[in-house]
Predict the structure of Cupin domain-containing protein.
Amino acid sequence: MPFPAIHRVVTGHDADGKAIVSANGPLPTVVELSAIPGTVFHEVWSTDATPAVLGNGADPTTGPLMLPPPARGSRIRYVDIPPDTEDFLAHGAARMKEAFSQAGDEDVSTVKASSPHPLMHRTESIDYGIVIEGELTLVLDDSEVQLRQGSVVVQRGTNHAWANRSGAPCRMLFILIGGAYEPDIAASLAAR
């Protein structure tokens, strides 16, 4: 059963500084990745600076899909994640450059022949991932954690993947904030 559409309300100010509704309705950007059918990105909002500029500017979600947040910005999105299939697990690694390219950044893919899952990737950001509906497994380089509705992951720039072994779609809400690695971590990642 498909998940319900996302309803978004965006506020703003009129010329007198009065609070108004700037947008009220469906999301303007919803993208299904053809390389991973059933994986759907629902773009809610993004900022490109900290502190965020609070104005009445254009909707930042109407451009091309970009997986990571801007370097000093943030991004909020829902992602629908279909169940892993035997074909995907067997041949998915070969399609990951294409999948991550469709998501706006093929360079985030870290998949290798020895990777524990074909969707292994890393972004230089802190990501809050909340399971809204369904179940997932967080896959790291050396461990896995089962996630259920209400689980929250604080993902701090680590190599990871989301495995859906439940047999049913999962919907997650992600809030991504641009980050920078500590020098020791940056050096260890560069040496890999």
In short: Residues 86-102 form the longest helix (17 residues).
